[in-house]
Amino acid sequence: MNHYSPFKVAELFEQLEAMAPGRIDLGMGRATAGPVLDLALQQNRQHPAQADHQQQVLETLAWLYESSPRTTRSPGTH
Question: Alpha helix locations (H) across 20-70?
Answer without folding.
Answer: 35-41, 53-65
